Amino acid sequence: MSHAKIDILRPGFLFSLKISFPWIILKMINMRGTLQQLSSKSLHRPLRSCIGCGIKTDKRALLRLVLSPKGHLMFDPRQNQPGRGAYICKRPACLQEAISHRRFPRVFHSSIAQTDYSTLLEQFVDARLQSIRHIRPSLRLALITQLLEDHFGRPPWQGCENPLDTLILTVLSQNTNDRNRDQAFARLRQRYPQWQQVLEAETADIAEAIRPAGLANQKSVRIRDILHWVHLTYGTFNLDFLCREDPEKVKQTFLQLKGIGIKTISVVLMICCGADIFPVDTHIHRISHRLGLIDDKTSAEKAHVILQPFVPKSKAYSLHMNLLKLGRTICKARKPQCPQCPIQAFCPSCEVS
Predict the structure, then answer these.
(1) 153 phi and psi, to 5 degrees?
(2) What is the pLDDT of residue 6?
(3) pTM: predicted TM-score of the whole model, two decimal places
(4) Is residue 263 annotated as part of the catalytic site, yes or no?
(5) Of 219, 263, 297, 332, which residue is the catalytic one?
(6) Which of 320, 321, 288, 313 is nearest to 302 (CA)?
(7) What is the pLDDT of residue 353?
């Protein structure tokens, strides 16, 4: 076995250290394996099967049942009771299925009293709510992010061609839908191809161009004031350099302007710069309330501050875009389609009847 002798000079004395190269290589391999294990643990999803429908999913999306010391079947909402457990989806139909097909006696190798089944059916809604509420918000959002990516896919970040275009587009989006916003922006750019032309135009003419977006008189003034401030402050309409600045500093700077709230500048930083910032729009505000992450008195502006710390690192864009898709297709303002919702297992507002 080859060895290398390394002499290390220390104040006052000289000592020698023999190091075995094969030993070092072996330690490096072991260390690499350890790091891979640690990395895989961060992505670990403990899977269990529902004994009602048979679906296999993360156990935190299921309800756990155990036998009490006296042999009674009961819910374990926190999933912390010792002993053998059985899992069912957080839907009454799965509990009914497990009961009617006598799945519990087979799992626990024990007869189950009929009164236990009646008690379970009565306690189901409460147990479901407890199982959701005991999961800390950061973990719940991490699980929701993964489920949304499983359902909708992971949206690729594509950036934007012009941060100022995105800024004005987001201002136009306030209090209106995407179709009206896009129509107003197209009319504005068709009439005024250059931002300098908008800056020099009369507010009445700008208002006429952006009429489809609503609040045209107010938005026209704010858009022109924003353009004036941008050109006066930076001497250009090119805001590409913002992506090289500290996102928090950019937010504080632009929040001083009328018409630019926390959502507006956050959208620009996330869409154009890829900043790990989580904007809260109307859809996300509504869904966050239904998920119990914010209460009904929390404004969209305050929701930004509350939700951002709970969003998984580097997942703000994915979570934002997928929640938008969820809000537009499933979790609508009126008549949400709860049975089709991929995150219903973590939603206390979900209709479970």
Answers:
(1) 95, 170
(2) 41
(3) 0.83
(4) yes
(5) 263
(6) 288
(7) 57
